[in-house]
Automatic annotation (TrEMBL):
It comes from the Bacteria. Residues 4-92 form the 2Fe-2S ferredoxin-type domain. It comes from Xenorhabdus koppenhoeferi. CDD domains: fer2. GO terms for molecular function: 2 iron, 2 sulfur cluster binding. This is Ferredoxin.
């Protein structure tokens, strides 16, 4: 079991939890928390193809069980295809 803190300073400093027991990827943790705040995150394919879920990783590290096909710039991640390896800070 892995449990990490996800901080979103651009969204009023919102801080949420990622748990490998509850979430299969970072997008699931973001959706769950943002739904409670009545906010949404963009996504389409949920499989690393389209790039629409792309966000900026400000601090920390993430891992990809399978290499995604979508293009990402330096410092960007695809929440639908990755999971935190440390506490992270992201900018939506
Ligand atoms: S939703 Fe398509 S790459 Fe994440």
């Amino acid at each position: 079991m892995a449990d990490y803190k996800i901080t979103l300073p651009s969204w009023q400093g919102l801080s949420i939890r990622y748990s490998s027991d509850l979430h299969s990827n970072l997008l699931e943790a973001l959706e769950e928390a943002l739904e409670q705040e009545r906010m949404q995150i963009e996504y389409q394919c949920r499989q690393g193809y389209c790039g629409s879920c792309r966000v900026r990783l400000v601090k920390g590290k993430v891992g990809y069980p399978c290499k995604p096909l979508a293009f990402v710039n330096e410092g960007e991640i695809l929440p639908c295809s990755c999971h935190p390896l440390t506490d992270i800070e992201i900018k939506l």
